[in-house]
Amino acid sequence: MPPVFRFAPSPNGNLHLGHAFSALLNFDLARQSGGRFLLRIEDIDPSRCRPEFEAAIYEDLAWLGIVWEQPVRRQSAHLADYRAALETLSAQGLVFPSFESRAEIVRLVTQREAVGVWPRDPDGAPLYPGRAKSLLPDERARLLGSGAPYALRLDMAAAVARAGEVIRHLSWTELGEGPQGETGQVAADPERWGDIVVARKETPTSYHLSVVVDDALQGVSDVVRGQDLFYATAVHRLLQRLLGLPEPAYRHHRLILDAGQKLSKSSGSTGLRELRAAGAAPADIRRIVGLA
To answer: Which of 106, 178, 204, 212 has CB 3.0 to 4.6 Å from 182, enough for a Cys bridge?
Structure first.
């Protein structure tokens, strides 16, 4: 079977040089290996995703000379796939609802940090500090019945326990390198992420859940993405194990930085549309990001 690569942007802003590098790298690797190149639109957040940004993604990628298979998978059209995966996790007793707002979580973290160090995930965000797992069934049912907003979280301790002996050997094949130069077989440590969100009341998925489901359903064999997602691979490997999904190879690549900072979609100086308007050609973009 030929290898399958993908580029999966979110239509919540215009593409920048970092997106161009990742898209071009995936496209080049697919061509060099005789493989396939897929485009996926990750539009599960209706509050931020816009049709005009999706249209701009197609236009910018075509301008770069990138060709992708049709049809494009749009996550918003496949919510049933993520709901089925969520039901599988729920049936294993691995999911629980938490009802704290973001402001309440900040307050809880502040209280805990006032008396000691509160753990944070590899991205620097504090682990979930609430006590939703200890709610009595009647209280949980009352809150759900009241229509209160909630997030569905993976009970990380229960998930790791269910993985059992396997979790001690959980790893992934790294064909690129991590932020600290990690390569080869990398040990996965999902517990560093705590009780991650896998869905919300209004959306039956999250990035972590949808990305592993999409990659499996699309037959993606090689996940090529930025080093900012390197440590999240541990969570993805755990979810793949729990859901019985295949393991792709991973290749994490360097980030394109602006004054030492990760690019954002609001950075006009590195936006593809702004660079095009200033007279840049596709060959210029390749040169800027360091691709032949």
So the answer is: 178
Q: Which residues of 161-188 are buried (b: 16+ CB within 10 A; e: fewer)?
A: ebbeeebeebebebbbbeeeebeeebeb
Report the C-alpha gap between 194 and 157 in whole angstroms: 8
Partners of 200 in the beta sheet? 151, 203
Q: Using CA of residue 154, residue 82, residue 188, residue 180, what is the dihedral sign? A: negative
Pairing of strands 4-7, 36-41: parallel
Dihedral sign, Cα of residue 144, residue 147, residue 153, residue 154: positive
pLDDT for residue 168: 74
Q: Mean of the pLDDT values across residues 159-181?
A: 90
How many Å apart are CA 248 and CA 222, to the nearest integer?
5
249, 210 contact by CB (below 8 A): no
Do residues 86 and 204 touch, judged by C-beta distance below 8 A? yes
What are the strands, taking DSSP E only, across the chain?
4-7, 36-41, 73-74, 95-98, 151-154, 171-174, 184-187, 197-200, 222-226, 249-253, 257-258, 261-262
Per-residue pLDDT of 8-18, as tens digits, reads 999 999 999 99
Helix axes 79-91, 207-217, angle to 10 degrees: 110
pLDDT over 90 at 262, yes or no = no
| Tens-digit pLDDT profile for residues 54-111 | 999 999 999 999 999 999 999 999 999 999 999 999 999 999 999 999 999 999 999 9
